[in-house]
């Protein structure tokens, strides 16, 4: 597998420094991407750059994932119009551990010579004093060079602290340290990182290349991937609730699966190339099938399956599919009975839920009372509204239609405590306590 050719057909190659392709064809090359621990989890925006490391390793090269324990204390100004809020060291450490665990799911850390490695830039910055850093890095990069970077120029009008201004120098030193101590020759990232990455290649050229101003020798290389946007030009990776995270505690497997399932047809050709490991032939066949029957959402289902399994495991994917069938499909009472007790809260996360006590149940004489009085008006605001919905054949209990407003409460509580109320296409869960 040729790494650059793979990126080209997938639409994942934005820019690279001269000689990068030749270097990658010549020998196994170590490359890295940095991830700042500004949140407890990575999100699907990060997943696009993680896939660069995945493809790099699949092509026989050695990937390094850098967790920015030091640079995370400052924050990258790239793509921002204001200075970010700064996190405590305790929060940063907690975030670092979460990100380490997530990255370990994508890369092979036991594959011999090209086994992935994870590093933390705090390990080398913690022993460097400010004066030492100025001598090590500051003397080799001019202010003129740093100010010319887009990430800096765009912030000069609104204000840029010296701390954020220094970020590119810190990232550049990361690259130099990895080049010198780990033999890393390539840094990759999103296209907005080009300025920071090339600061690293310049620092390496000046320090490791003897400081020659016009050296023809390429010691280090840069490569970027396009930022992912939707077909309409808007930012990709957000849902109604904000970022789509890789941590199941922050975005459940069901919500994660649904995000990909809801992608537009116009976005799918790009998404399936960037985020899945399907081959070019497999993708083109799926696109042919999708064009013949777009209502089946073949591309969306293929993307959702591939990415959800790799992020959340086969079990997570299976549960997400089951949740989708329960909430939106034509499932039966038998399907509901098959849901295990520990799956209920996962499947019905986000579905309105009402607690019903034994005392409240004792005060109900029929189904109408259950859906109005016992539910405290949260399912139906009044007895009259509940009665009308039932007589109009708009209510199901546990996926079974209810037609008699005066029907008795001889109901099956799933797992002894749940009843799923379906109001047309909307669901509401009653929980007995």
UniProtKB/TrEMBL annotation:
UniProt superkingdom: Bacteria
Its GO CC terms are: cytosol
Q: Which family does the record claim for this protein?
A: Belongs to the class-I aminoacyl-tRNA synthetase family. TyrS type 1 subfamily.
The UniProt annotation puts motif 'HIGH' region at 37-46
Q: Which residues form a coiled coil?
A: none
Subunit structure comment from the entry? Homodimer.
Q: Which leading EC class covers this enzyme? A: ligase
Identification of the protein by name:
Tyrosine--tRNA ligase
> Motif 'KMSKS' region: which ranges?
235-239
